[in-house]
Amino acid sequence: MTRTRFETFEGNIYPEDDTYGPINPMWANCPMFEIKQDPSLAHVYFEDFHVLALADFAVTTTEAGAGSATEALTDEIGGVLLITNAAGDNDMDQFQVGTATTGESFILAQRQPLWFEARLKVNNASEAQFFIGLASEDTSLMAGVTNSVHFSNADGAADVSYHCESGSDTTADTGVNVVADTYNRFGIYWDGESTVEYWIDAELLGASLTNIPTTEMKVSFAMTNRVQATAKTMSVDYIKCVQLQQRAALVP
Amino acid sequence: MRGMQFRRDRGNLYAVDDRYGLVNPMWRNYPAWMIEQDPRIAHVYFEDFHTLALGDFTVTTVETSAGSATEALADAAGGMLLVTTDDQDNEETEFQVGEGAAGSHVGESFKLATGKPLWFEMRLAVGDATECDYLCGLCDTDGTLITAASSGVFFQKDDGDRNIDYHCELVTVDTTDDTGVDVVAATYNRYGIFYDGAGEVGYWIDGVEVGTSTTNIPTTELSVSFAIMAGAAAAKTMTIDYIKCAQIR
Question: Among the four A137, A148, B11, B181, which has the fewest Cβ within 10 Å?
Answer without folding.
Answer: B11
